UniProtKB/TrEMBL annotation:
Residues 12-170 form the Pyruvate/ketoisovalerate oxidoreductase catalytic domain. It holds the Pfam family POR. One of its GO terms (molecular function) is pyruvate synthase activity. Keywords: Oxidoreductase, Pyruvate. This is pyruvate synthase. Its EC number is 1.2.7.1. The lineage of its organism: Archaea, Thermoproteota, Thermoprotei, Thermoproteales, Thermoproteaceae. It catalyses: 2 oxidized [2Fe-2S]-[ferredoxin] + pyruvate + CoA = 2 reduced [2Fe-2S]-[ferredoxin] + acetyl-CoA + CO2 + H(+). The keyword Cell inner membrane does not apply.
Amino acid sequence: MGLLEVRFHGRGGQGMVTAAQVLAAAAILEGKYAQAFPEFGPERRGAPVKSYLRISDRPIYIREPILRPDVIVVADQSLFKAENPLEGAKENTILVVNGAYKAPIKTYYVDATSLAMKVLGRPIVNTAIIGAVVKATGLVSLSSVAEALKKYFSGRLYDLNLKLVETAYQETVGL
């Protein structure tokens, strides 16, 4: 497998930090090494944030921002105007985006906001994004994600978020 690096772009309150953490936990459950960490200061809800995820079959010793990601995740398309989420993309980088978007790299999209509103009643897209990332990359299994979600949600919230992951997985489309 080697090292796989994922960079998440979102806005405060969308749950991109949690999305990276859940995927890291799922990878660890599968016997892989993983690290997830955010890059943000004291931003308010709605401000741009980045989160990073590394998964490998060997220990990971680097602890720095991901500049040349294998996967770029964009939870809010307005970020394409506010910054350049595609910066550092390689020829084979995969883009996972909330909503249809035409990009010069392989792109997968899902309407995460609509799905979150339908399932959760709130526009918190992190678990929909998790489903889309798993569909686009296969970096972990859905069963590992289901187990990892238990560390972050319980009861009805767990059930709703698992449903959102599974629905987004099914509805993710590649361009």
